[in-house]
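Sample entry (328 residues):
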Amino acid sequence: MKRIFSGMQPTGQLHLGNYFGALKNWVQLQDSYECFYGIVDLHALTTAYDSSDTVADAVIAVAADWLSAGLDPEKSVLFIQSHVQEHAELHLILSMITPIPWLERVPTYKEKQQELAGKDLSTYGFLGYPVLQTADIILYKAEVVPVGEDQVPHIELAREVTRRFNNYYGNIFPEPQTLLSSSPKLRGTDGRKMSKSYGNSIFMAEDPAELDRKVRKMMTDPRRKRRSDPGGPEDCPVFDLHKVFTEPEKREEVAHLCRTAGWGCLDCKQVLLDRMHPVMDPMKRRRDELLMHPDRILAVLHQGADRARRVARQTMEQVRAAIGLLKA
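Predicted structure, serialized as tokens:
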């Protein structure tokens, strides 16, 4: 099987955007690829360098979400990035050959600066984020990286850096290929992009009563001010959720009733909730059970790091020999 690497920053409990944008796809890939999935805590420090005391708890939260969603440590290597020190070593080596203009032209570099305008991001760590990401991928000689379209420029940069390394030192690494996954654009409860920083998220392991409250208060099509006004599903954040939870035939009915004012928004939301609970409530129960035993979660991650480290050490032996560094 081809090998995959993908990672997720530990920013705390995962929301539905994380689940449908990446995690659900990762679970499905486990049966057809050799999967390495890392909780990339070093990446978190690129923006959370001044609140690093929150990272450890966030790692446990993400791991609990991963396991409750169906990532299986018997099928995939699940680990914490910083527990495999070779990530940092390869990142350092790659940083020696990566031109600064390559990093400055990555679209998300300026976008993230604008999004976090109140934070000082004039650091090498923030600029060099894609170099560390490249190291994460090629350390395991991953051939495929599952990403949404917004991450394609990062993988293109990873391919350029890999090609440059191979040109200098020999053909050590395969150039990673993108595996495009459909990433539905889920808006939050206020109509903006779903984000914990906006406080508008629906978490994938949401408490059932809280799920009801959030969905019933969600913003809908702003043009539909009265029950008798026809709506536009394409402009409604609630319909975004119907696209991922509601079966196609019922979804068409939902859209028709909205456009013709055949029902009210609360009716539409109840149909959605009837489909969300059977998916989300079991994840909530599994997550709660896991968090009762955080030592077991850590054991899974430690075992995964052992497996990842064996591969990473072999890779770095090749890298050091190719560069010409003396053995210790």
